[in-house]
Write a structure and sequence with these properties.
alpha+beta; Lipocalin; eight-stranded antiparallel barrel
C-alpha cells in the first residue's frame, strides 16, 4: 500500500512539473510607444518652463507630436526609440517627455528643460 501511495505521489509531482514546464510567461515589453508615460491620442498639452517660456505639444497617439516652441512655427516630430518616457525627433529638434515634464534639444543642445505640464 505504501509503495502504491508513494508511486502515486511521485507520478502526480512529475505531472505537475511537466505542466509547469509547458507554461510560459512573457517578458516585460520594451515597446516605447506603449508606456504609461506616453500621452493619449490627440491630446494637446501646454508646458511651462522655468524661464517663463511655454511649449505646446499635440500628441497624436504615441506616433507623433506636433510641437510649437517659443517664437517658432509648429514642427511635426515622429516618435523615436527611448529607454524611458517618450522621445519625438526629426533629427534636428527633439522633445523628451517623461511623466509631466519635457525637455527640448535643438541640434543636440538642450534649449528648454524642466518644463511642466499645465493642463
Amino acid at each position: 500500500m505504501r509503495t502504491l501511495l508513494r508511486a502515486t505521489v511521485v507520478a502526480a509531482a512529475l505531472a505537475g512539473l511537466a505542466v509547469a514546464g509547458c507554461t510560459t510567461t512573457s517578458p516585460p515589453s520594451d515597446d516605447v510607444t506603449a508606456t504609461d508615460e506616453t500621452r493619449s491620442a490627440d491630446e494637446t498639452v501646454v508646458f511651462a518652463c522655468p524661464g517663463g517660456e511655454t511649449i505646446t505639444a499635440q500628441f497624436i497617439g504615441a506616433e507623433t507630436a506636433i510641437v510649437t516652441l517659443p517664437n517658432q512655427d509648429p514642427v511635426t516630430l515622429p516618435a523615436t526609440e527611448s529607454a524611458s518616457g517618450a522621445r519625438y525627433s526629426d533629427g534636428t529638434t527633439t522633445l523628451w517627455n517623461k511623466g509631466e515634464e519635457v525637455l527640448v534639444e535643438v541640434d543636440n543642445t538642450v534649449v528648454l528643460s524642466d518644463c511642466t505640464a499645465q493642463n
